[in-house]
Amino acid sequence: SSELTQDPAVSVALGQTVKITCQGDCLKTQYPSWYHQRPGRAPVLLFSGKDERPSGISRRFTGSKSGITAFLTITEAQAEDEGDYHCSSLDTRTTYVIFGGGTRLTVL
Amino acid sequence: QVLFQESGPGLVEPSETLSLSCTVSGPSIRSDYWGWVRQSPGKGLEWVGYVRHGDYSFFNPSLRNRVTISIGASESRVSLRLTSVTAADTGFYFCVRGIRGYHTSGYDYSYFDLWGQGTQVTVSS
């Protein structure tokens, strides 16, 4: 079965740009969905597996992909961007949903 | 306005059955997929499973033998039943709406666009 690998933690200076990565064989043919989760809160969809940003999500968040690695780029990082970022996709062979381990973003 | 009302026992004894309920206000649960995602303390997200009213259902293979998800369309309710629970089932359980489809670029996709606030479940004697 496929796995999605994320860096456990990333930091960015206030106002700067950061790329959060998600790697997995299934991403060769798919775009992942991305979620932001603040402490004690439910995750919020940032980017769908259709490579679309839901309405209401800031244009500071963009998704991209190269080979088996997907990127969530956050520009002009704000304090409110802190929290955990999760990627998710479908296992190519089984078509079951899989999640990465999550990346904790700290805004310095 | 979308509103999820999740409810559950909070504490379940090992080897017992966990039952959670989620009442949805706003979107119809007769379309799309409805199910659960859980999160163990300090860990990442884990998909439990989801079902679509009247036809398909998908479950995490690691839980498939123990999990049942049902939709009560008339009550707009999504229910989870997890049997033979252990401490590993402790965590936050989120009621979710799942979108699943086929992209014109030639791949299947699935994502969760609506999330409940979650309900805490602790398995302990």
Q: How is this structure best described in words?
A:
The complex is a heterodimer of chains A (108) and B (125). Chain A has 108 residues and is mainly β. Chain A has strands at residues 9-12, 18-23, 33-37, 44-47, 61-66, 69-74, 83-90, 97-99, 103-107. In chain A, strands 1, 3, 4, 7, 8 and 9 form a six-stranded mixed β-sheet that branches. The termini of chain A are far apart. With 125 residues, chain B is mostly beta strands. Chain B is built from no helices and eleven strands. Chain B has strands at residues 3-7, 11-12, 18-25, 33-39, 45-52, 57-59, 67-72, 77-82, 91-103, 107-115, 119-123. Chain A binds chain B through residues 29-31, 33, 35, 41-45, 48-51, 54, 84, 86, 88-90, 94-102, and chain B through 37, 43-47, 58, 60-61, 94, 98-99, 101, 103, 106-113, 115-118.
The gist of it:
The complex is a heterodimer of chains A (108) and B (125). Chain A has 108 residues and is mainly beta.
